[in-house]
Here is the input.
Amino acid sequence: LCAAVPLKDMKLLDVKLGQLPTWLAMRDFTPSGIVGALRRAAFWFGEFTFPHKFLVQVWPSQIPVFVLGDTKGNAQRAPRLLRPTSRGPLPGWRPFSSSQASGKLPGSDLREIDAGSSAEAVGEEEEEEEEDEGVEFGTLSNKFSSRKYYHKTTSRFQNLKLQEGEEEPERKLRRGPKNSPYWYFLKCKALIKEDKLAEALELFEVQMLKEERVQPEESNYTVLIGGCGRVGYVKKAFRLYNDMKKRGLTPTEATYTALFNACAESPWKDSGLQSALKLRQQLKSKNEELNLITYHALLKVCALCSDLRMCFDVLKEMVHKGHVLTAETFSFLLMSCIKDSENGFRYALQVWKEMTKLGIKADSHIYNLMLRAARDCGIGDPVVASEVLLRPAHDNSSQLRLAPGRQKEKVKNQKKKGSESAAAVQLDVEAMEKQLFWESSVRPEEPIRQQNKDVNCTETEPAALDSPSVAHGRTGALMRRGQNKTEQEQARLSQKLRFCNLPNLLDSRMADAAVVSLGTAATPSDRLALMGDAEGFLNKMKDDNAEPNIKTFTLLAELVGPQSPSESSLLALLDEHKVKVDVTFFNTLIRKKSKQGDLEGAKSVLPALVKRGLSPNLQTFCNLAIACHREKDGLQLLSDLKRSGVTPNKYIYSTLIAAAVRQLDYSYLTEILRDMRNNQVPPNEVIIRQLEFAAQYPPKFDRYKSKNPYLEKIDGFRGYYYRWLKVMAGEETPHPWEKYRTAKRAVDDHKEEAVQEQPGQ
Here is the structure.
């Protein structure tokens, strides 16, 4: 058993209530005993509250703290703790405020404390003396609150706090009146209109949410999602959409339209299509009713990211819901037709026919889409095209009549009749789809029957040479086979007179016997001739009250045949329709002549460009570089650019390298690479692929077996090319969304954003 502790050595908390008088009588109240008790108290107080070098007396009030030390600044333990008198500080005592003690005590040096001015210390003491006048011992707790809690701290903890403060400074709240959510809506809308999406996102996420802490509304999110949709920033658009739902805000139809538009404009079409289909499935599960504008945005996604069949699925749903189809609806169908490079032109003509049957007049945008289809797409199988496009209107009018549908109000008022009409309309859309993809359902015997019919038509073709379409094709063929100048001029004049009589497949009033059958229509000019050529096409636009713009004439410049009267009359037609010409139109004419190898003809367009008050740009010189097949012409172009003070870009060099590789002119390639090195133009991926192909030996090439004059200088080019690669820096392809991301203020934020931008989030 442990020995019993004597009552004299017991602590106050261990003494029982009955033993308290005896314990007090045993205390030593002599001066030496009081001093010893104070020494023990001072030792334990300094041991557990502050480091061992300090001895601090803290009064139960916000009064100065005195640190004991000698006159040299070395800390000592005080033999006694005394209240400083009014005559001044005792020798070895230095006044030290409590705020300084909390910031300087851990790991600080006493010499830094001695560096303070003595005048400030004396002033503080005088103020304290004035405040403490009339205060007796034991009455301070009645006026001042005592300090009850003491927290231990270390130098390492203080260093961590300082490091955190340096890396991530606390953002101060903005003072003064806060801006309203509507003000932020207008400000973000103006920034987005100025193509400053990054600034708009910064304004919303930093100033509105973090600094002013304004509660956002649905319109604030919708306008930013719309801005992200215009540039295809899909990840940010859906992140804002999810944040909007977490805040309890209800998305509107404008929000869904902006999200679908973001998916359509995405640089990665597959990812955009998957996001759009997922959103569509969510809306179906919630039974959300979409308006016509939102359906158009969904059609745009299907047109740009998928195929025509998916567009018809959305079209069926639109008609079933009772929406009225407009010209914009068919414009998205035409955009989907253009994606099919083999049969797109035939699909576009069929969609055009269905649009005209509904009584919808085309606008300038639809006419431009038809020109794009004629430029980029083929007509497909001529037999199928002749059967579908030249069929009389009364044969397929009953099958392809696409009723415009009814308004939603009418469908609600007449539920029974509405269900029947919706079913009938859906059958009409299905009939239109079957008619459009007619070749997939044709029986094996039908193509043979159509071929026999085509042969019979070709036998009777000499008797139909007087028809305008056949005469047009024959005169064009005769002109190409070789005639003298007078015969060519006569043919051009007779051809010019027939322009107004050319059959136009865009015109529903065209006579059935005007065209017997369709040929392959392999060239864009042939496909333009099926739409009445340039003059007939513009006359059709005039009938529909559609004004042609500069994009219309630029597309016509690409479609008209070379050296044709339509090409020479384009500038006159521009002036006639009062359309302001731009550099892109002249660049199209220059590129067309350069592709034919006519460098002088391409240069002859430059005076007309300058005459209109325009200046050539880098695209103009890039089009001229297409015709520079010889080393002399290419180097002359580079020297002209240097004299003009213009630095060639990567596209000009890529065009010159392509021409040199086709000619296997390795000295020409070496000069181009030397000029690139002098101008410090970094090569892109296309240029590297071209040069790697040029540096490879041909398959089955044996230099010892036979002499090839084209490959004599390949070794010299290879040596220079590999040295050139070591000194040239490649071009870094920027991320499509880099310029729209908000600027971060720390490296950790950049890393976190990079993780969030990974696919599959």
Remarks:
- The first helix runs from residue 20 to 25.
- The mean pLDDT is 74.
